Amino acid sequence: MSANSFGNAGFSVLMPGARLEGRCGPTNARVRCHLGLKIPLGCELVVGGEPQCWAEGHCLLVDDSFLHTVAHNGSPEDGPRVVFIVDLWHPNVAGAERQALDFVFAPDP
């Protein structure tokens, strides 16, 4: 998804006590792949009202166009929750649609 402004990759670090209130991603043309790197107890992700589970060393696919919240309810001794996030094309987006979206939403030079 690197040919348009919806494709990103990066680390997400959430400290104990932090909470990201409900929000929605900008499009349903992508899914986000979360690779759990450090997942202390007490971390939660709820997408569309359904609890999801991160696991260290495993990927979780998330459609972030649904309302979602993230929280780290652990203690300071637990340290941060760390995931690596990569955006992928939603499997229901056809090749011609991908090309059109890449053209319309090309990143700024």
UniProtKB/TrEMBL annotation:
Keyword Oxidoreductase listed: yes
Q: Which InterPro entries match?
A: Asp/Arg/Pro-Hydrxlase, Asp/Asn_beta-hydroxylase, IPNS-like_sf
Q: Which Gene3D superfamilies does this chain map to?
A: B-lactam Antibiotic, Isopenicillin N Synthase, Chain
Which residue range or ranges hold the Aspartyl/asparaginy/proline hydroxylase domain? 4-91
| Any GO molecular function | dioxygenase activity
Keyword Cell inner membrane belongs to the record: no
What are its GO cellular component terms?
membrane
User: What keywords would UniProt list here?
Assistant: Dioxygenase, Oxidoreductase
Which PANTHER family is this protein grouped with? ASPARTATE BETA-HYDROXYLASE DOMAIN-CONTAINING PROTEIN 1, ASPARTATE BETA-HYDROXYLASE DOMAIN-CONTAINING PROTEIN 2
Q: Which family does it belong to?
A: Belongs to the aspartyl/asparaginyl beta-hydroxylase family.
Instruction: From the Swiss-Prot or TrEMBL record, give the protein name.
Output: Aspartyl/asparaginy/proline hydroxylase domain-containing protein
What is the originating organism of this protein? Jaculus jaculus (Lesser Egyptian jerboa)
